[in-house]
Amino acid sequence: MLLENEKTGFLIEDYLTVGAVHEVLFRIKKDGIKKIFISSPGGSGRIVFLGLDRLIPENVTMIGGEMVCSAALSFFLCGKRRVALEETIFNFHEAIAHVDGRNVLEGELQGLVEIRKINGENQSAIELSDLLRDLRCVNELTINILRNATTLSPERIHALMRGSGMTMSARQALRYGLIHEIIEVTKA
Question: What is each CA distance from 126 to 96, 104, 129, 138, 171, in whole angstroms?
Answer without folding.
Answer: 18, 17, 5, 18, 44
